[in-house]
From TrEMBL:
Compartment(s) where it occurs, according to its Swiss-Prot or TrEMBL record: Cell membrane
Residues represented out of the complete protein: 674 to 961 of 961
Organism per entry: Oceanospirillum linum
Domain named EAL: residues: 24-277
Name by which UniProt lists this protein: cyclic-guanylate-specific phosphodiesterase
């Protein structure tokens, strides 16, 4: 009896493995095909200066428009893309497409905004610098409008090499932002040595502000750390007016979140630009 049960369990177990393996193979092939057949899309989430709530930039966020599954969010395929190496192709497409769109908006006479692009650990290698240089040349998008977002763990994986890559990116004139700050393992000694421009406070710390005492203390500490290192702070995942006002009072520089805007299709960015241009007529320039 026990033997039969054991065998059943074993069969069940191998069945599971086969399912997992074939599921991820199916997913991998679908993603490979999706990239090749142009099923990736970019949405853009606005970022605002806290001082005057003016539009400062957008973050490009990838989506997969799957023919049967519909619009697939990145958390469902970025991990797979990283495991299979497809992230290199995906990342190259994102970099080119985002800069192409950014330049299109400039050509159409919309305000000069920053464009932030996420870069995975696997992409963060010597070749990235040439890739970015080439994309800027081909699209005409200005380096000083481009922000590269990398995570703490990406930089910490090969910290001394990371300093070199960051320095060469900075020589191109692009900005670098440290994404999801506070969630990874990060050495404060390295933080000082990395040539960075911005720290993005992870939304995990923002969601329970201002009520959660620990999150408030962490957020305050991150902002004052950033200020002493001369880095701009960006709060991600701002969902309530209370959070926004609290962060404003702490001197956080920029905010991004559903309260202000969801990630938008390029066409929907147009009305944001028009509102921004209207405000520019009414207000003095300046901000953060
Ligand atoms: P991330 O770079 O930290 O991007 C911020 C994420 O927070 C986005 O999720 C955005 O839609 C979401 N978000 C923004 N405001 C709010 C808010 O108020 N509340 C909540 N709950 N969420 C908010 P998304 O677009 O699903 O992207 C998830 C992650 O996938 C990104 O996190 C980034 O790590 C990765 N990702 C997205 N696009 C790319 C890409 O082109 N390349 C790479 N390598 N990774 C990407
Ligand atoms: Mg990001
Ligand atoms: Mg982030
Ligand atoms: Mg995040």
């Amino acid at each position: 009896h026990a033997k039969a049960q054991g065998r059943n369990q074993y069969q069940f177990f191998t069945q599971q493995i086969n399912d997992d393996v074939s599921r991820s193979l199916v997913m991998e092939n679908a993603l490979r095909k999706g990239i090749a057949e142009g099923e990736l899309r970019l949405v853009y989430q606005p970022q605002f200066c806290m001082k005057n709530m003016r539009l400062r930039g957008v973050e490009a966020l990838v989506r997969w428009q799957h023919p049967e599954q519909g619009l697939v969010p990145p958390d469902f395929f970025i991990g797979l893309a990283e495991e299979t190496g497809l992230i290199l192709e995906l990342g190259a497409w994102v970099m080119y497409e985002a800069c192409l769109q950014g330049q299109r908006w400039r050509d159409e006479g919309f305000p000069d905004i920053e464009l932030a692009v996420n870069v995975s650990a696997l992409q963060f290698r010597e070749e990235l610098v040439d890739q970015v240089r080439r994309v800027l040349e081909e699209t005409g998008f200005p380096a000083e409008n481009l922000v590269i977002e990398v995570t703490e763990s990406t930089l910490m994986q090969g910290a001394s090499q990371a300093i070199g890559i960051l320095s060469r990116l900075k020589e191109l004139g692009v900005w670098v932002s440290l994404d999801d700050f506070g969630t990874g393992y990060s050495s404060l000694a390295y933080l000082k040595r990395f040539p960075l421009d911005k720290l993005k406070i992870d939304k995990a710390f923002i969601s329970d502000l201002p009520h959660d005492a620990d999150d408030s203390a962490i957020t305050r500490a991150i902002i004052s750390l950033a200020q002493s290192l001369n880095l701009l702070t960006v709060a991600e995942g701002v969902e309530t007016t209370e959070q926004l006002e609290y962060l404003q009072a702490l001197g956080c520089d920029l905010a991004q979140g559903y309260l202000l805007d969801r990630p938008l299709w390029p066409g929907d960015m147009i009305s944001r630009f028009k509102a921004e241009m209207h405000r520019q007529v009414l207000q003095d320039k300046g901000g953060c």
